[in-house]
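Reviewers asked in the last cycle whether our approach scales beyond single polypeptides. To address this, we selected a multi-component target totalling 492 residues and predicted its structure end to end. The input consisted of the following lines:
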Amino acid sequence: MAYVATRGGERAIEQAERLYREALGPITPERVAELRLALPLLVDRVMGEASLYDPDLAALALAQAGGDLYEAVLLLRAWRTTQPRLTIAEPVRQAEILTHRRISAAFKDIPGGQILGPTLDYAHRILATEVMEGETFTPAPVTPAATPAPARQPSLADWQRANGLVADPPRSEVAPDDIPDVTREPLLFPASRAHSLQSLARADTGGLLALGYSAMRGYGNAHPTVNELRLGEAEVMVRHPSGALFSAGRVRVSQAEVTSKGKSGLLDLGFCATFGWNEVKVIAGATLDLNASGAAKGSPVEEEFVLYHTEPVEASGFCIHFKLPHYVTFQSSLDALRGAKTAEKDEVPA
Amino acid sequence: MLDRGEAGDPGAFLSALARSCPKRLKAMAEAMLPRLGAVEVVQSRTGLVMLPFRDTVRGKDFFLGEVLVAEAHIRASGIEGYGMVTGRDLERAMAMAVLDAGRALGLSEVVAFAAREAAVQAEEDTALLRRVEATRVEMETF
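The resulting structure, written as structure tokens, was:
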């Protein structure tokens, strides 16, 4: 592909940016705070895809991008590069997550029980048009239970392993500094488990959904059932200089396992987790993880195909670069086309 | 609500400070500051903490992403104080570092403050989990 430097149009470029930003109006702390409050799930989605957890900055990015998710993710990813990496927290373990929601579609009676948590799963989807007539839509308040739910819920996969339902692969401890990191190493295939799951965690929600849905519709090897879906808050456990472990705060996380009957007589499991609460993303991601093993080269569920094509900044960047000047490339194509036509004409007998 | 050890546990103390109400934390630090003497700021910055997550299928750790934090490190009266909180509020991290130093100097008010904040946090968690419990469902098949 050929590119060419272009000159000219500086004034037009400046005015074009002004036209874009003028339409969005002033961005104030109040607007950012309102966005964070009103659109927590969108803020979560941006943080997950940006791979940077800070709801305030995610809301600011959304405000600055006028709601364009790819622009918002790009802004956050770019800003992230200005920050030093201070340390590595302790790994989040499933059974230590402060659980708000935890369900299984595969097993009715799971250890710890099923907690619906905040969800519209069983709600009617009705647009509250009365708001447009000047009324306020006030949701009915929750009636709290007399006793609190357990803060932590046990791991269903652990229970399945104990009951011989799923494989129990040997586990080797990896020092935090040795965990592979796709932000510092190239993504090579076959990808390490850590690279694969990190890439899914920061993947584009829509991209994972499209490919995951194709697997669900039959373009994959395995049809998923949700083994466990969990939304919660994880403590960011860091070390004080004295060595004491403490929580610097909590972050919202989602994780899903999906399952299908494997060929070995055990249940196969797929896994995905991400920052924020984003159920579609983790279910689709776990479905792709479940289907990755043995997938044909170039199929929509093959690991390389999935991970390369769901990286939001690379994919959106490549897509929109096609609108930038390609005059040399295109002129070359035109020249070839004209040349072929001339040759064709010359060959036609008089 | 989450077990963070006993009240005297340094981890529990620091966790309570990191999650405490920013306004009350800063006010308490302001009040304690004169008792620390001259304070040297070793570090005051924002940065990223990598957050690993353990895959429940194969038991591998991977990076979920990075969490923005504010960090502060001070020296006062020959002791050190450290603070780290999620977000980008440097004053909050500094206030935590001041109170951490206060604890090392044996200021009992600081420990009492952390205990009060921990109690508030436990109440908040209990209230949240009572609301969560209201959504517990017994699935029936027929």
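Chain A has two domains: 10-80, 94-119+147-168+180-315. We regard this as preliminary and will revisit it once experimental data from Aim 1 are available.
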